[in-house]
Design goal:
By secondary structure, the protein is mainly alpha-helical. The chain is elongated, with a radius of gyration of 25 Å.
Amino acid sequence: MVDDHSRPDGLDDATVEALGKLGEALEATEHARGHLYAFHRTTGRSDLLLGEAVDLFREAGHPELADRLATELVGRNVIADRWTFQLVEDYDDNYWSAFRELEREARDRLAGGRRHLYEAEMKAERRTHGAPHHEAGPGAAG
């Protein structure tokens, strides 16, 4: 991993902007992945709570309702033939990992592996040089 956020010699503005947009797209994909994992965890929690509700309906003397809930909902696929863990795995294996690989390849080929060049240049423009809490990076002066 390259920690240097300086623009390599000869790298033009359009390429820095394109790499920045690609990075932004990857960040959006990471955000979507987080939502997918939240969906996975929340749906799993729902299924466990549903199982508890089934037990409580049985104890309360409603075996027909408990049986129907247990048969039709507990452990049910959330989409055709799949539980949420399978959605997560498919997303990770077939989209997220390919996205990360291609973003890294673009950075390696065009910017020597440097990440966040667009943001680093924005920071350099926007920060107040020499002011506290506006340092360029860890251990950097001014």
